[in-house]
Amino acid sequence: MINIELEKAIKLMVKSIEEIKETEEIKLIEAGGRIIAEDIYAPMSNPPFDRSPLDGYALISEDTKGASRENIKKLTVVECIFAGEYSERVLQRGETVRIMTGAKIPKGADCVIRQENTNYGQDEVEIYEELCEYDNYCFAGEDIKKEDLLIREGALLTYVHQGILSSMGISKVKVKAKPRIGLIVTGDEVGIPGQQLRNGKIYDSNLHLLYSRLNEFGLKPIIAEIIGDSAEKVGKRIGEIINDVDLIITTGGVSVGEKDILHNVLQLIDANRVFWKVNLKPGTPAMYSLYKNKPILSLSGNPFAALTTFELLGRPVLAKLSGNDNLQLKQVNGIMEDEFNKPSMKRRFMRAFFNNGKVSFHENKHSSGMLASMIGCNCLIDVKKGTQKLGKGDNVNVVLL
Amino acid sequence: MINIELEKAIKLMVKSIEEIKETEEIKLIEAGGRIIAEDIYAPMSNPPFDRSPLDGYALISEDTKGASRENIKKLTVVECIFAGEYSERVLQRGETVRIMTGAKIPKGADCVIRQENTNYGQDEVEIYEELCEYDNYCFAGEDIKKEDLLIREGALLTYVHQGILSSMGISKVKVKAKPRIGLIVTGDEVGIPGQQLRNGKIYDSNLHLLYSRLNEFGLKPIIAEIIGDSAEKVGKRIGEIINDVDLIITTGGVSVGEKDILHNVLQLIDANRVFWKVNLKPGTPAMYSLYKNKPILSLSGNPFAALTTFELLGRPVLAKLSGNDNLQLKQVNGIMEDEFNKPSMKRRFMRAFFNNGKVSFHENKHSSGMLASMIGCNCLIDVKKGTQKLGKGDNVNVVLL
Q1: Which of A52, A182, A373, A390 qualifies as a cystine partner to A363, CB 3.0-4.6 A?
Q2: What confidence score (pLDDT) does residue A330 get?
Q3: How far is A97 from chain B (nearest CA, A)?
Q4: The domain A23-45+146-176 is classified under which CATH number: 3.90.105.10, 3.40.50.300, 3.40.140.10, 3.50.50.60?
Q5: Could you tell me the sign of the dihedral formed by the alpha carbons of B110, B114, B119, B120, in that order?
Q6: Residues 6+ apart with CB under 8 A from A245
Q7: Considering CB atoms only, which of A47, A142, A369 is closest to B143?
Q8: Nearest by CB to A356, which of B86, B100, B357?
Q9: How far is Cα B183 from Cα B223, in angstroms, rounded to an integer?
Q10: In sequence order, what DSSP letters do the residues of A47-68 get, joined into one string?
Q11: What is the CATH number of domain B23-46+142-176?
């Protein structure tokens, strides 16, 4: 298919691939940012036992009936337990156990008196107030009940989950395997940073840009290479790596010039082109193919175009492959704070800054070569085809980066 | 000092420490998320030469005077250059160079005609339009000019910076060294996940919670241990590691009970307590000390309290040590969408959900033990001391997590 809408392109890509089925069991403490591969239910209650929320004395509430500073009751202190300790004892009438914050309340006791309302007695303690059943009493399972659903399959593991799972005694979790990504930057003009730049060449932007962005998504490519403009070379390399990766992303060579080699590459390796050219700017000539059932997303070589179409087309593919909905495009509404007075003949994505519902331009450079002006931008304005101008106060659709 | 305000506590901590001076030079491609240690200026212009923005013919605009489809002008094609190539030639009147997108415009040429407005001639080409000087002409330095400031000392390196620095031929960057953090969880009651839980004990939350949160900040602790309630042991361990770390964070043992050992620990090692008890809930008994000029931040053992005070007190310390302003507390205003009807005798931080200026409670559990209810929360409401209730529509201060 040629010249399709973005939404159609996304639908075609997502339909053509499946979520990666592999999972791995890894240490909980290192699992932050990973996607959970199965529903996890609480294997125990938390707290695991009834416990004291304060330093005091565990006792039987009946024993405090009528107690006050004027009418002191006295109880025999039979034991002292700190957090982490426990008593085998079953408390009898007239007895009390000195108990510290977090310690397990002994059997028989039905409440805890705050130490400030006693004389802090060691063998015998004076009780200065009357208590009801379950006063100052934390029940087992108050935070989490055994069998509670702790985290759903597909959730992104955060530090709060890690704390909670740890409190359940869980030390390993099953997470989804990450998609293995191969990144290939084509173009005879692309020089390698750190090396001498030859006349007529420019240094790479796309490899660093996309590698780093994938890294920010937690999806560092396993292969990342700059290859020239030889269709044979690029085709050969794709053939070599296709079985080791779940997705190949290429930049460059997708337009209609003589050196737009990706068309030849696909023919050479006998890949199946799903679409070419998406009705948007920048990055129109984006292409998507399948080779040995693996997706190849081919983006324009212009850095801003590569970046824009990577976000628009790449994220939905990554979300599907990795089962990570956090990678889906985040589309919100915004109100323009600035104007833009050029008509847009095609649908166009413009870099901008989104803050609290308001959209402003960071700088007034919108040429697709202007990578520097991306600094400080955090969204793309989705400018509809045929828009004459964007005015202050206009409502716009925005894709958050 | 005892019983101080949060703002005073932050001021004291920040004053007591210095930003880490060490820097390291690392590969640009792996430097995402690091803090840049020096201003970086553009070592070259980008593009490094005048180049063609399209496929066409570079020529001298004078030669097109009066040209149209009716009044065709003809030029001799003297060379053909693709992106990455260049010509030594100085173009003469009557000559043209076939040029592809991104290729360097040869000397003498002052514009480029779009190939669609020619007959695509190989040796001689027909020109169908009149051009002006610098039509379809990209100037060297259009994106970045040599000596431009590319990134400031103290900036967080993102993928856009990485793409830009790469396009400048830069392959290594000087970044600030990360603070080395030691995390010590105290408490005889704390069991290790993955091991059998003994009666009266609970599994660790704090080690996993704070380690994982620090990891999210890019500051994985270099030491993370669970130690019991022996002041001698804890003191000994702090003594052993103090020279290898820039900051120690402890949890537990800071209240006033018999097992609140941190007070003894500080005496044993002869550390200097800067403050104890901050006027807020949860986590009031937070403590801050200096030992061998290194900061020790000691938080309450209750997980939600530890988490809250880690954010409120820990982030400013981390921001200062690492020279990373992104770690500073992010305070914003919000409008309450829910009610909370309990009076707050002390200043109180309540977990909540912030979205587009609106603040809602995620669940109605506010006991400080309820770690599970932190899931889905992304902010803390700063409830002023003496607040009787929070009503729908009330303006509140919020700390974003």
Answers
A1: A373
A2: 95
A3: 15
A4: 3.90.105.10
A5: positive
A6: A180, A181, A182, A222, A223, A294
A7: A369
A8: B357
A9: 6
A10: SSS-B-SSSEEEE-GGGGTT--
A11: 3.90.105.10
By DSSP bridging, strand B2-4 and strand A2-4 are unpaired
Q: What percent of chain B has pLDDT over 70?
A: 98
Does the pTM of the predicted model rise above 0.90? Answer: yes
Q: Does A264 touch chain B (CB under 8 A)?
A: no
| A346 CB-contact burial (10 Å; exposed 0-12 / middle 13-18 / buried 19+) | middle
Model ipTM?
Answer: 0.91
pLDDT confidence bin for A257, thresholds 50/70/90: confident
Q: Does A147 touch chain B (CB under 8 A)?
A: no
* B85 and A CB contact within 8 Å: yes
Residue B317 has pLDDT above 60, yes or no: yes
B365 pLDDT more than 90? no
Residue A364 predicted with pLDDT over 60? no
Q: What residue type is assigned to position B244 of the chain?
A: D
Domains of chain B by residue range: 2-21+178-327, 23-46+142-176, 56-127, 330-400
Nearest CA in chain B to A103: B200
- Confidence at A365, pLDDT banded by 50, 70, 90: low
Equal fold, A2-21+178-327 vs A56-127: no
**DSSP bridge pairs for B76:** B95, B124
In total, chain B counts a number of residues equal to 401
Poorest-pLDDT segment among A202-216, B341-355, B362-376: B362-376
Chain A contact present for B247, CB below 8 A: no
Of B32, B102, B193, the CB nearest to A189: B102
For residue B316, whether the previous peptide bond is cis, meaning omega lies within 30 degrees of 0, is no
* pLDDT reported for residue A265: 94
Summarize pLDDT for A311-361 with one digit per residue, the tens.
Answer: 999 999 999 999 999 999 999 999 999 999 889 999 999 999 998 899 998
- Cα–Cα distances in Å, from A234 out to A184, A192, A242, A254, A359? 8, 17, 12, 13, 41
The CATH architecture that domain A2-21+178-327 belongs to is 3-Layer(aba) Sandwich (3.40)
Q: How far apart are CA A190 and CA A229, in angstroms?
A: 10
* pLDDT value at residue A363: 63
- Find chain A residues with C-beta within 8 A of B368's C-beta: none
Two tokens, residue A283: 């990055």
Per-residue DSSP letter, A29: G
Rounded CA gap, A363 and B148, in Å? Answer: 15
Superfamily name with CATH number, domain A330-400: MoeA, C-terminal, domain IV (2.40.340.10)
Measured distance CA(A319)–CA(B304) in Å, rounded: 32
Residue of chain A whose Cα is closest to the Cα of B224: A29
Contacts of A240 (CB under 8 A, 6+ apart): none
Pick the CATH number of A56-127 from 3.40.50.150, 3.90.640.10, 2.170.190.11, 1.10.8.60: 2.170.190.11
pLDDT, tens only, B182-237: 999 999 999 999 999 999 999 999 999 999 999 999 999 999 999 988 999 999 99
